[in-house]
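Technical annex B. To support the medicinal chemistry partners, we prepared a structural model of the target in complex with (R)-mevalonate, based solely on the information shown next.
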Amino acid sequence: MGITEASAPAKVILCGEHAVVYGCPAIALPLGNLRAYASVRDGPPGGPMRFRATNLHREWDVGSSATEPLGELALATMRYLGRDPTSLVITLSSDIPIASGMGSGAAIATALVRALTTHMGRALSPQEISALVYTSEQRYHGTPSGIDNTVVAYETPIYFQRSTPPRPGTSPLSSSANIIPLPVPDDEPLNLVIGDTGKHVPTHEPVNDLRRRYQESPQLYDIIFHYITALVKEAGDNIHCRYHEGLGALLDRNHYLLQELHLSSPELDTLVLAARKAGALGAKLSGAGWGGIMVALVRADGSDRVAKALLDAGAVQVYLASTAPPAR
Ligand code: MEV
């Protein structure tokens, strides 16, 4: 067999991050133009699984056991397929900035599972791929809600609410979450501008910090989560009704609540304010916070102005995204 190639998108959380870890709903969108890639080909007979991460200029071999996430995920995927580890060359690359809130880890893992399973002649459902990636993320990041692997594997806008987390030792498919595809009307797409602060923050750091504070005074945080739940539900309705001014105001409110949760940073606040001043309908931090990215909702003709304002305010990179179907 020749080379099998696959890819997976980045993601952006529109609203509800962090609260989603505690069972509240959140909305996330895939970013189809920004992707991670995996290719798989057979290696020499009797050889190991050889990984090549081109962005990291790293190569490593995996035999019958692995001590790093991608090797473990490859072995878990082979086990799920009922196959023994075999000699393969797996090449990974990504255009997604790491530790920036754009789901780079979930996208690389999803591209890997997609390429590996296709190479083995099997087609897994998004649910199965998402569950395999979730188990791997859970092992390395503690308590992920599952929203990242879900939006990346389903590759569609989703309204997501975690229910029971998977239990260790059970099938990955035993995880259950309420995943509602959230179609965005094509005639009123969401136009987003994403600004990267350039400050890399591993997701588990703010997540663990919030958990520690939550355990000290749960009542305080439950009130904020209650407000976030209400705004996420309204945001879903506003997307459905094409009411983008209302949606923008909800994003602003979500940013304020994330500030209250001590998840913003001076860099994020500066970019959020700059986007609003440049005419964004609303703006907020997105993902884990303390750094990483922010997202602004803009009018169809507002992207360039907001993108320029973000660069002038210190963003190291901006990305334009839209839910509009690609032009033919
Ligand atoms: C990270 O992309 C989103 C968080 O809500 C963490 C999670 O949902 O696992 C911060």
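Notes passed to the chemistry partners:
The mean pLDDT is 93.
DSSP finds nine helices and eleven strands in the chain.
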